[in-house]
Specification:
The chain is built from five helices and five strands. By secondary structure, the protein is α/β, with parallel strands linked by helices.
Length: about 170
């Protein structure tokens, strides 16, 4: 397919954050998968500060980055898939007015059924038709703790239920 598209021997650099989980592990897998289809990717691993600088100054071909919102809300969780003029932490350097229009319609829709339809249209547009970003994994939060830790309600988000005022030790 690359040869037919005139892109045989395509090579690029992946800017990656110097953190093992999930960044280094995921990048190793992604680079290997790309090699299987004929892409030649090299990885540049940078400490967090220079990595963010590379993102903010667009000094990268491809990068790994997380979509870590502060609340669990589908409308907010997909805001990062808008172009940089709309979402300042989108480092992809693209413009997509159709995504902005879909997002604004979805954001202002009060009927949950219609909002859901708009969300599906937004997902198809951003993750299937345009593909400015690729979602590679879903992080399941697993927090092991001792059996004597009581009343701690572990949420799927790192940002929810951080008040430990109700937690007690049965020991």
């Amino acid at each position: 397919m690359l040869k037919e598209a005139g892109a045989e021997g395509l090579s690029f650099e992946l800017l990656n954050r110097d953190v093992d989980q999930p960044f280094k592990y995921l990048a190793t897998w992604v680079v290997d998968e790309w090699s299987k289809v004929g892409l030649k990717a090299t990885q540049r691993v940078a400490p967090t500060g220079p990595w963010f600088d590379g993102l903010r100054t667009a000094k990268f071909d491809v990068s790994l980055e997380g979509n870590c919102q502060s609340v669990v809300n589908p409308l907010l969780d997909v805001s990062k898939y808008q172009p940089p003029p709309e979402f300042t932490e989108q480092y992809g350097n693209f413009d997509d007015r159709a995504a902005v229009e879909l997002y604004q319609k979805m954001l202002h829709e009060t009927d949950p059924a219609k909002q859901r339809q708009l969300m599906r249209a937004f997902e198809k547009h951003t993750l299937d038709d345009q593909v400015h970003n690729i979602t590679t994994l879903w992080w399941n939060r697993i927090v092991p703790h001792r059996s004597y830790v009581k009343d701690w309600k572990i949420s799927p988000s790192h940002f929810l239920n951080q008040d430990l005022g109700t937690v007690w030790l049965d020991k």
